[in-house]
Amino acid sequence: MEKKASFEYLRVLATLAVVANHVCSGLFNNYSIEQMGNYNSRFLYSTYTLVSWAVPVFLMITGALLLNLNRIVDETKIRKYLSRMFRILLIFGGGMQLRNKYLMKEQ
After folding, report:
1. DSSP alpha helices (H): ranges in 5-74?
2. Contact at 8 Å (CB) between 51 and 18?
3. Distance from C-alpha of 57 to C-alpha of 10, rounded to nearest angstrom
4. I need a surface site. Which of 19, 43, 46, 69 has the fewest CB within 10 A?
5. Rounded mean pLDDT of the chain?
6. Cβ 28 vs Cβ 44: under 8 Å
């Protein structure tokens, strides 16, 4: 499958936007508006709002790449995709649950 340059550029831009999204939401979760100051909180909220498009763009790119009309999708490929998604969910979801369990205990 050939790579499309427009998708690659959009992925890079969306990756940066997702990072900005996480940074802004992390700051909002850890600091109050009084601690950040009025100007900083407005800037962070504006940035958070402006980068909220990133996750839907990732989903649309994935859909566009998966919907290839020349591609044959049989049961083994579906099982492979489901297995991959389950492993990712298990590893990262389980890791996050463990992190939350032990961090919440310390706080």
Report:
1. 5-30, 33-36, 38-50, 54-66
2. yes
3. 8
4. 69
5. 84
6. yes
